[in-house]
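Open question from group meeting: does this chain pack into something compact, or does most of it stay loose? Before anyone orders reagents, we agreed to write out a predicted structure and look at it together. Recording both the input and the output here so the notebook holds the full record.
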Amino acid sequence: MRHRPLKLLRSLARVFLAAGAFALAAPATAEPAGLPDLRTAHDPALQRGLERVVRELDLDAAVSSGRLALALVDVPRGAPTRLAMLNGDAMVYAASLPKIAILLGALAEAERGAFVLDAPRMSAIHNMIRVSSNEDATRVLNWVGAQRLLDILQSDRFRLYDARDGGGLWVGKAYGGDGAFRRDPLRNLSHGATAYQVARLYYLLANDALLTPRFNALMKDALANPGIRHKFVKGLESRPGAAIYRKSGTWRDFHADSALVEHGDHRYVIVGLAQHADGGEWLARLAAPLHDLVVPPVREARLAR
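Structure tokens returned:
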């Protein structure tokens, strides 16, 4: 009995030491105070709008068959976030879209001082994202480390992949000829994503909550000025004035696109994952009407003037 206070003190010391170690390892959380969990932002009106657009474009069969997954997030300044999804938690092969996860891993490692983002490194990062260079994607992945990247995606800080919650962003293979080093536990995919978790990454980025401000700015800079003008970028050409921060992907009949779009006072996130020969055109056709759900056409005309 005499030793119980000492044992209790030792146990408390271990708890506080562990808490301190966690604080050093994770200087920020995925959803900081004041930023609601994205799942709580589901909005019935926006959901009805998303379903109406899909129906009017005759893509409802693609959704019901699982060949199309979509997420739309209205991220207004000073007003509640709104979320709508179709097949949002479906884990899908996403081709080059998960290079956005490699981008996050590189910036998170640079943020903690693992390496310096000098001009050659930033050039490789821009090539990986803007023109989807496979060679540069593999180069950047090697800086981070394959297992280290998966640890980052599954960490308590980011929670961008959770097998208990539908999956998320996964990079289990370099973008080259080598085989997969670790496929995702749910679907055995080498490069996978769910529309929800991709949208959540952009949601955090839009709210300056993904990384520290300097590295959030570097991430947006890498995603700016898309070098491949198809899918969402092509579809938004009819909506002038939109700033697009974007990463897409294509392989065979798999087509993916994702973007944070800023237009006047409006901000929104759009994610589409399709498996069909015409999937790229589906995403191009969806972009403008989904834009109009957030940026009403009357507002659009006033901005154009």
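Observations to bring back to the group:
Confidence is low (pLDDT under 50) at residues 1-30, 299-305.
The first strand starts at residue 68 and ends at 74.
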